[in-house]
């Protein structure tokens, strides 16, 4: 289980960007963290991966991975966790790729850094994972530079790299943002398949309540760094506890008179 226990995070002497925040993610579960830009969602992902930038620090609470606190881990220990125990798909996976390296070269380098046996084994695994996320022409994709791929293809490359080592937990930050509707639907299907195939616990970070409701077992609602609502999908949609959640629900498109869920 990945757990946040009453966590408060701030940057320098600024007011907290996340305050008394708690969340739990089990293996095989999909949960969503929903909120507008600036609510603290991405801070949750960065903290969970040991990647708080600059002067960011956890001033209260604890983060546990399978029962063990991660707060005191050094970078070497984090490197053993990232990719294998927990992995992240950043908001713009394409921007996270090195523009002057082919997809194949950086994919293989990533796998070898995290323990793939040799270059050939890593290359074969990279091709397999690209096919698994819906890129059938994987061999050609390996030879391409990121700028030669569409946004949806780059996003799939990012997902493929994140799941290649079968992490127990996958954290995805706005995985469908800036994508066309067709590609969004394909990415959503891939996320559901990840849970089915690998039994990974998935944390979906999004501003889109409709997407969260469609995919998630549980939903957490974040506003200005504070958790204002949490519960099962049905509890959130049918019995919201905050006006902010109610406003989010009213913004969800309706199809045939029913909410899109």
TrEMBL record:
The alphabetical list of record keywords is: ATP-binding, Cell membrane, Membrane, Nucleotide-binding, Transport
Any single Pfam family the record assigns to this protein:
ABC_tran
What PROSITE patterns has UniProt attached to this entry? ABC_TRANSPORTER_1 (PS00211), ABC_TRANSPORTER_2 (PS50893)
Q: What is its main location?
A: membrane
Q: Does the keyword RNA-binding apply?
A: no
Membrane topology summary: Peripheral membrane protein
Q: Where is the ABC transporter domain?
A: 2-249
Q: Name one GO molecular function term.
A: ATP binding
Q: Could you give one GO CC term from the UniProt record?
A: plasma membrane
Q: Give the family from UniProt.
A: Belongs to the ABC transporter superfamily.
Q: What is this protein called?
A: ABC transporter ATP-binding protein
Origin organism is: Bilifractor porci
